[in-house]
Amino acid sequence: MKRLQKAAVLTRLIDELRRRGSWAGETHVQKAGYLLQEVTGVPLGYDFVLYHYGPFSFDLRDELTALRADGLVTLEPHLNYGPKLATTPQAEKLQKNFERTLARYGPAIAFVAGKLGSSGVYELEKLATALHVTKELGEDASVEDRAKRLTEIKPHINLQEALKAVRRIDRFRTDARQIAARREAVH
Predict the structure, then answer these.
(1) 63 near 73, Cβ under 8 Å?
(2) What span, in angstroms and rounded, lies between the C-alpha atoms of 182 and 134?
(3) What number of other Cβ atoms are within 10 A of residue 95's Cβ?
């Protein structure tokens, strides 16, 4: 995917997250971008590594900074909390120039934003790390083994929370396969 196509997808993702009640800070966009790429198959092309709050892409961070420099995204500062990301009218114009790209990936963006919109950073950390563990151990690994591994990586997450996160990511992946199948059937 070319840079401006990615910009259209990322700005639409920020818009959709905000529409669904997300804080839409960088951590929210990082985790949503990770799930969008890894679960729904939207080819953003970012490399993610395990970091403080779960999978994180330094390339995506650079891209968000570039979107701000291009006047497509702004930061809304909030006292006592990190800033929210918001799109600008220029982002809306960019999205109109990439209607085909957004028609193809829009359902996946809406799906991910709908699933994550109201989640806080802690919930996003558990869910994204559950996906990371699933990729690390393989899809055939048991829920219990993946949950145990999640607690090894993130010791502040207890086993019951880890089990819930792994089960939730499994449901998320099952539902996402239907979105990807519909996209491939149409395009």
Answers:
(1) no
(2) 24
(3) 20
φ/ψ of 120, rounded to 5, equals -85, 175
DSSP 3-state assignment of 98? coil
The pLDDT, as a whole number, for residue 185 is 80
Q: What is the pLDDT of residues 104-138, one digit of tens each?
A: 999 999 999 999 988 999 999 999 999 999 999 99
Beta strands in 4-152 (DSSP E): 49-51, 54-56, 73-78, 81-87
pTM above threshold 0.85:
yes
For residue 19, what are its two tokens?
């529409």
For residue 115, give both structure tokens.
């699933």
> What backbone torsions phi and psi does residue 140 show, to the nearest 5 degrees?
-85, -10
Confidence category of residue 182, pLDDT binned at 50, 70, 90: confident
Where do the H-state alpha helices sit in 54-158?
Answer: 58-69, 89-97, 99-116, 121-137, 143-153
Contact assessment for residue 108 and residue 36, using Cβ atoms and an 8 Å cutoff: yes
